[in-house]
Design goal:
The chain is α/β, with parallel strands linked by helices. Among the domains are: 40-337, ANL, N-terminal domain (Rossmann fold); 520-649, ANL, C-terminal domain (GMP Synthetase, Chain A, domain 3). Strand 2 and strand 3 (74-75) form a beta hairpin. It is globular, with a radius of gyration of 24 Å. Belongs to the ATP-dependent AMP-binding enzyme family. Residues 91-479 form the AMP-dependent synthetase/ligase domain. InterPro entries: ACAS_N, AMP-bd_C, AMP-bd_C_sf, AMP-binding_CS, AMP-dep_synth/lig_dom, ANL_N_sf.
């Protein structure tokens, strides 16, 4: 039997946005709503438009045209739409003075924008972009940290019909250049830099180096985030300041509507091998999906304050911005590391900004567990209504620490899973249903997902491939300018089904769990084993801060498990590796006990705190780790390689 960490109270059931939608249509439960939302996807998405009052300038003549096949659906044909109207303009009549954006930097500086101020900045920025020659269909990159200018830029670019290309703020020049060239970007908005862990990150320098190899870029807009006065002069490109772009002396741009399925955003996957893929997202499709996520999964309304610890270069950045503002709520941006100057910074942020929905990664929670619990709970965290999580599987000890110890089981953890190409989630629990530890609940509304075996047959109680049988509005329209790569990546494994590349499990109680990327899952003597199953056991040891498990070739078993662990500060380390091997044997099974256990100083992680298992495996085997441009700490790869190599020499 599952251990249920969350049981909804009458307050949640009476007031939840998702049950408001259900009751409007005579639906009594979340299970019934899930079933109806996939039995008739056109009914569901039309109901979402009506429930969230998402404005279309021209009404659509139908919800879905799938005459070109499941791979290429046309949503809301005939409809026209503008994201600025949907996310900003419609709130001005009675909410102009309501907070739209709050920004807090690592040094404690706070800036706040109302909806009226955001609307004015966006309108001026749109005029400034058109003055630079940017128009509908032109791609514009943003290489910015989590600052208000990033939000303004997103809306201004999309609002004039140009294509938004967000770039991770930690990318180096080669990674920037590859994405700018693939998208044929015409202009880039960049910050002179940002501060992370007290260190200056010179972003403008990286962009200048990248632009030596980007012939399509004609203009650069510089945000003076650090007060450096950097001008980013690039031969052949016009350089202007952010202040010039948003000059209030300019006319305010009047936003026109565009076809609902016109391209609005290119979200690049991190790409561990090969060229990163540009997922194609549309004006109405992406906006409607993320609006529904924020409203129904995270239960945010106009009085909500939404904060996700992320980067605008990952899909969670645009999801947070567009989804929050499509619901008329306030967005909190945190620029920097959430554990600086100490492990209580995140909790201080929550208390200070009265955050109602806090999004974190399991890796971040594991890092914060070493802090004094009494110090954490002494903060006023009473504003929190829901917690969000994505990016990787949880371990039970970290999940339960956050849910039970920090929040006393009074708020749900909405652990959801999807991807850049999905434009939101495949799986998510809802605040109105009981939630067991680490569970993803079930299919997100409108998402006809399943778990199947290698022959495409439904599978329960065993690990299988996560697939989706019907389209959804935010489904990528393809891989940018590469139709065949799109079809090969997502539609070739099983006829008529999107295959996402995740392994999942539906247990005997109908609870869904993501077990990891299918190419991360180990095959031990013919039995599939997800890294998370081993890692969650390793994390139970008092000396372990975090851990990773990989499969390596073995002549007898096909693969054997190797485990890597990072000690907690000040923890005893003598004999721990042997203890961990025993712990896995007891917790998972003797056949799955790691044949080798390595103590390391760090594990390579993305800036969004995902452990890069494929990089760990490459380091251990001495092979090419592939694209490390998204790594927060790429030096960890060399450190692991050194530990393994030196041990082999003994």
């Amino acid at each position: 039997m599952s251990t249920y960490v969350w049981n909804p109270t009458a307050e949640y059931i009476d007031n939840a946005n998702v049950l408001r939608l259900a009751r409007r249509h005579g639906v009594e439960s979340i299970d019934e709503l899930r079933a109806r939302s996939t039995a008739d996807i056109e009914w569901y998405w039309d109901a979402v438009v009506a429930d969230l009052e998402v404005p279309f300038a021209t009404p659509y003549r139908g919800v879905l045209d799938s005459s070109n096949g499941l791979e290429f659906p046309d949503w809301f044909p005939g409809g026209t739409f503008n994201v600025v109207d949907a996310c900003i303009t419609r709130w001005l009549a009675d909410g102009a003075d309501q907070t739209a954006v709050v920004h807090e930097s690592e040094d404690g500086t706070v800036r706040t924008f109302t909806y009226a101020e955001l609307a004015e900045q966006v309108a001026h920025a749109a005029t400034g972009l058109t003055a630079l020659g940017i128009g509908p269909g032109d791609a514009v990159g943003i290489y910015l940290p989590m600052i208000p200018e990033a939000v303004v830029a997103c809306y201004a670019i999309a609002g004039i019909g140009a294509i938004l290309v967000p770039l991770f703020s930690g990318f180096a020049a080669p990674a920037i250049a590859s994405r700018l060239n693939d998208a044929e970007v015409k202009a880039v908005i960049v910050a002179d830099g940002t501060v992370r862990r007290g260190r200056t990150v010179p972003m403008a320098n990286e962009l200048v180096a990248a632009l030596e190899h980007c012939p399509t870029v004609e203009a650069v807009v510089m945000v003076d985030n650090l007060g450096s006065g950097h001008t980013a002069e690039v031969p052949g490109a016009k350089s202007v300041s952010w202040q010039t772009l948003v000059d209030p002396a300019q006319e305010k741009w009047v936003f026109a509507a565009f076809p609902a399925m016109q391209t609005m955003l290119l979200g690049y996957t991190s790409g561990t091998t090969g060229k990163p893929k540009g997922a194609v997202h549309t004006h109405a499709g992406f906006t409607l999906k993320v609006a529904s996520e924020v409203a129904y999964s995270f239960d945010v309304g106009r009085d909500g304050v939404f904060c996700w610890i992320t980067d605008m270069g990952w899909i969670m950045g645009p999801l947070a911005a567009f989804g929050t503002h499509a619901n008329g709520a306030a967005l909190v941006l945190y620029e920097g590391s959430p554990d600086v100057p100490d492990d209580y910074r995140l909790w201080d942020l929550v208390a200070r900004q009265r955050i109602t929905m806090l999004g974190v990664s399991p890796t971040l929670v594991r890092a914060l567990k070493s802090a004094d619990l009494a110090e954490i709970t002494s903060r006023d965290l009473s504003s929190v209504h829901t917690l969000g999580s994505t990016g990787e599987p949880w371990d039970p000890s970290s999940y339960d620490w956050l849910a039970r110890d920090v929040f006393d089981s009074r708020v749900p953890i909405i652990n959801f899973s999807g991807g850049t190409e999905v434009g939101g989630s495949f799986l998510a629990p809802y605040p109105v249903e009981p939630i067991p530890s680490c569970s993803l609940g079930g299919p997100s509304l409108g998402m006809d997902v399943d778990v199947v075996d290698d022959a495409g047959r439904p599978l329960r109680g065993e690990i299988g491939e996560l697939v989706c049988r019907q389209p959804w509005p935010a489904m990528t329209r393809g891989v940018w300018k590469d139709k065949e790569r799109y079809l090969e990546a997502y539609w070739s494994a099983f006829p008529g089904m999107w295959c996402h590349g995740d392994y999942a499990l539906v247990d005997s109680e109908g609870q869904w769990f993501i077990m990891g990327r299918s190419d991360d899952v180990m095959n031990i003597a013919g039995k599939r084993l997800a890294p998370a199953e081993v890692e969650s056991v390793l994390a139970m040891h008092a000396s372990v801060a975090e851990a990773a498990a990989i499969g390596v070739p073995d002549p007898k078993k096909g693969e054997t498990v190797w485990a890597f662990w990072v000690p907690r500060a000040g923890a005893e380390t003598t004999g721990v590796s042997d203890e961990l091997r025993t712990l896995v044997a007891k917790g998972v099974g003797k056949p799955f006990a790691p044949s080798k256990v390595w103590q390391v100083t760090a594990l390579p992680k993305t800036r969004s705190a995902k452990i890069m298992r494929r990089a760990v495996k490459a380091a251990a085997l001495g092979t090419d780790p592939g694209d490390l441009s998204s790594a927060e700490n790429p030096d960890a790869v060399d450190a692991i390689r050194g530990v393994v190599h030196n041990a082999d020499q003994v």
